[in-house]
Amino acid sequence: MISKIIKRPKSALHRVLMSSGPLARKVYYKFFSSAFSREQAAVGAGIAKYNQDSGSGQDLFLLRRNIHMLEKGLTMRPRRDSFGHDYIERTVRSFAAASSGEGSSLMASTEVHWMYSVLHDYFEATVRSTDPRVQSLRGTFDALSVELGPRLELGCGPHTPSVDVPPVGIEALTGLAERRKSVRWFTDQPVSREIVDRAIRVGAESPTACNRQPYRFEVVDDPASVAKVAAIPMGTNGYRDQIAGLVVVVGDLSAFFDERDRHLIYVDGCLAAMGLVYGFEAQGIGTCCVNWPDIPEKEAAMASLLGLSRHERVIMLLAYGYADATALVPNSAKKDLAAVRRFRKL
Questions:
Q1: Phi/psi of residue 113, nearest 5 degrees
Q2: What is the pTM of this model?
């Protein structure tokens, strides 16, 4: 009751100031609302974690970004004899640290072959470079190659694009997209984890900014865990008791060293989520995207339940399961093509 009484004048103030000019809106968010403070705290914590991990052997986000930039340099036409001077030292040092030790998470991944291949190709491409940093680091990498080379594959870097006939035609892809509807009523048939992993593989192939992949999928598929997660967002009211499984898409702000990139977890995470949706749909599994509003109590509840760090934020949820053939799904008609597309000549 008290919270409702407090909210009424605040709601009225919100309506008034939001309808006023930019100065009034600044005043509101400065003195009367903390709506953006959690994002600020998460972004700050992410940058701090990024800096903390630098050089520790755990800075895989930095490695992914820098190796990606080297790979882009290798694909340039014409290719320069020397490039990447500003970040090659940090990249080689980080790769050496990340690939050392028995418990190296990098060496246990497939990414290490890509990173090693790109670095190998880079030092071959810059053999005529007169930059002392490149010359010095070539020796460091050669020493690493003696140690790591026998365990790693080459040829995992830049390659020619696929120009043959795609395995899926546009008619089939359009049919899959049109077939997909938001399913909220599921059977009690469990979805195997093999099916889930196949769908996740599709989502994980989605592009991300500088290949940092700043997200992960938290999957719950036992009834007790699904019930706990499904009870938190508002969008599951009325049907949450029979959801077969849930995916929580979590963004990691420690992938970034600057505030300018704070929105990339949402862009990259949702690109991956759409691939995940199609991965499920292609296997006959229904899905429903669950909105995640920015509400303090719900963010705190989900962070506590999943054990999220301060630099991690929930992006969205996805319910999945075998669709109940006797239930209805909304048609949710989409805009016409002309309403969402404009060809421009500037």
A1: -65, -40
A2: 0.92
